[in-house]
Amino acid sequence: MLRKIFRLIRNLLIGALWTYVFLFLISMAFLLIWNFNFFSARSWQTITAFWQAGGTIKTGSDYVFLLALISVPFIWIWGLGRLIRVNYLNILLWPVMAYNRRIINKYGHESGRIILKNLKSSQEQIEAVKQKLESIQPGKPREVHNIRDEIQKKLESSQK
């Protein structure tokens, strides 16, 4: 329950900040391109008067202006959705991670690490290794056999 409350507060904060920044940017863009103040009632009255007087959309600039006015809420919703999904911890930790990557690239290339990529081996390879190991093992010397035989004989003679 507490997690949902924190998420709601986070989303409301992001929404408020995004709305402020978005409206500022849109207002500046409309003001610079079409001399239309988004927050002025006079600009909206001019559009209403033009439309009520039978005004028609003739030029490409008029079409772009109308499309921009219609697309403002959709762009706001899209931007809000994108900002809510952003992991802000990664943004805050970016300088530390960038420094880490830099140090690893600078000093980490000549490390003594061994990276094993494929540990899978076939049965044939295992058999070949076993044969090599058996050929390497030295045979038991004759003296060991002779000593064992003598001990075995003495044990048998003492039991009789």
Description:
There is one protein chain. The protein is mainly α and 160 residues long. 76% of the residues lie in helices and 0% in strands. The chain has seven helices and no strands. Helix 1 runs antiparallel to helix 3. The longest helix is centred in the first third of the chain and has 33 residues. The model has no long low-confidence stretch (mean pLDDT 84).
How many H/I helices? Answer: 7
Summing up helix and strand content along with how strands pair, one would put the structural category as mainly alpha
How far apart are the first and last residues' alpha carbons, in Å? 89 Å
Order of helices and strands: HHHHHHH
